[in-house]
Write a structure and sequence with these properties.
about 425 residues; 7-stranded mixed sheet; alpha/beta; globular; 12 strands; single chain; 5-stranded mixed sheet; 15 helices; binds nicotinamide-adenine-dinucleotide
């Protein structure tokens, strides 16, 4: 059970948190509440395929907690999406939004489908059908979905269009029901790159604290929205990207890759494998195709899982040689792996901190829609940096003061914010 093992990670700070707030009774209550989602919507979606046959797909929207504000969280399309996974991710959204100080709660959604098996028109129809089924539960002051794995601004645009049609309203503020829309459709500048940009800001803050010198050697698993954009920002900052991968495999080059050139090659080949010779230097002794398993076990300074959850488990944790792990995917380490890596002395920058740039800029997108504003990308990134450096400093202070790791310190800060709100909440 993914949720159970993820929840165990936060349970580890319960006693510390009790001693901090001196309110054992209410802390027990809060943990009881956080262990359950507030609403769990399961839908069956009908899709008429282009050959006329109807296929039925399972979909979910799980709303975990809204003490801090409307529910917020992405929608993913994956063939093995399930309730346990979506609940876990919704819980992490509650914690993430609290951690970075947003007036938002946590949710997540998904459809059990491999989008590559659909035509473009079928993908659009299925996305619209999902919105028809969850319409009653979403809205700018209820629940605000966003893109996640295998969803993007085009899909958000279809969804917001369907939502506006059903609501029979022309009120542009309703567009704040979705974030991650295209810029032409009232999306925010910088949203596409925001999660990667946030990862860069957090990593830079971390290496400054530790006085680490560049070039640092980096391996990134996953070359989608998060992995690619982060790679681009890290490359600009002088990190050496020695290994990159996507679902079909990876590439390695000791000289380091330019991610933009790799992306051009990936687009041509529809995969990253075989793109190892695209950064100028091409020496068969230095570069090669590697598997995703090999990538994770490389001897690099920084390992960045940016694909799916459970990339590092009890099976490979002992083989990890990186010194720092920046968790850009949600929940990339199982609970056992987390424990093993901590014992090995590997520093872990947790997902709720590292990948929070996406939800912060989603919040900026909501603000722009609600106040009829348009921010420049510079302003978006400036504001993002303010949120993230403030949060990082607060987490660091807790870590130093209590002598705990960054994940535990992040949980404590998030719990403090939830606890403050909970005290005034009418249950
Ligand atoms: P995406 O669909 O754009 O990209 C996913 C990438 O991972 C693709 O390159 C895919 O080929 C690769 N991949 C899939 N399975 C893999 C495997 N087994 N091994 C190696 N690579 C594999 O998705 P994304 O938006 O980049 O999301 C990636 C992760 O980041 C997810 O865990 C997601 O929940 C998390 N996240 C995303 C955002 C966001 O704003 N998009 C925000 C926070 C967290």
């Amino acid at each position: 059970m993914i949720f159970e093992s993820t929840f165990k990670k936060i349970l580890e700070v319960k006693e510390i948190f009790k001693s901090l707030v001196n309110d054992d009774f209410e802390v027990e209550n809060i943990f009881k509440i956080l262990e359950k989602e507030q609403r769990n919507v399961k839908v069956y979606l009908s899709l008429k395929r282009e050959n006329g046959v109807i296929d039925i797909f399972e979909g979910y929207r799980i709303q975990h907690n809204n003490f801090l504000g409307p529910y917020k969280g992405g929608i993913r399309y994956l063939s093995d999406v399930n309730e346990d996974e979506i609940k876990t991710l919704a819980f992490l959204m509650t914690i993430k939004c609290a951690l970075v100080g947003l007036p938002l709660g946590g949710a997540k959604g998904g459809i059990k489908i491999d989008p590559k098996t659909l035509t473009e028109k079928e993908l659009e129809n299925l996305s619209r059908e999902y919105i028809r089924k969850i319409y009653d539960f979403i809205g700018p002051d209820k629940d605000i979905p966003a893109p996640d794995v295998n969803t993007n601004s085009k899909i958000m645009d279809w969804m917001v269009d369907e939502y506006m049609k059903i609501s029979k309203s022309e009120d542009k503020k309703l567009k704040a029901t979705f974030t991650g829309k295209s810029v032409e459709n009232d999306g925010s500048e910088g949203r596409e790159e925001a999660t990667g940009k946030g990862g860069e800001i957090i990593l830079e803050s971390y290496i400054q604290k530790l006085n680490l010198r560049k070039p640092l050697r980096v391996a990134i698993q996953g070359f989608g929205n998060v992995g690619y954009n982060l790679a681009k920002f890290l490359y600009q900052k002088g990190y050496k990207l020695v290994a990159l991968s996507d679902s079909k495999g990876g590439i390695y080059n000791e000289e380091g890759f330019n991610p933009e050139i790799v992306m051009e090659c990936k687009k041509e080949r529809d995969m990253i494998s075989g793109c190892n010779c695209v950064s100028g230097v091409c020496d068969l002794k230095l570069e090669q195709d590697i598997t995703n398993e090999e990538l994770l076990e490389l001897n690099v300074d920084i390992l960045i899982p940016a694909a799916l959850e459970n990339a590092i488990t009890i099976k490979n944790a002992n083989n990890i040689k990186a010194k720092i792990i920046l968790e850009m995917a949600n929940n990339p380490l199982t609970e056992e792996a987390d424990e093993i890596l901590n014992k090995k002395g590997i520093s872990i920058i947790p997902d709720i901190l590292a990948n929070s740039g996406g939800v912060i800029v989603s919040y900026f997108e909501m603000l722009q829609n609600l106040n009829n504003e348009k921010w420049s990308k510079e302003k978006v990134f400036e504001e993002l940096e303010k949120y993230l450096t403030k949060t990082f400093d607060e987490v660091w202070e807790i870590k130093e003061k209590l002598n705990i790791d960054l994940r535990k310190a992040s949980f404590i800060l998030a719990l403090q914010r939830i606890y403050e709100k909970y005290k005034n909440y009418n249950i």
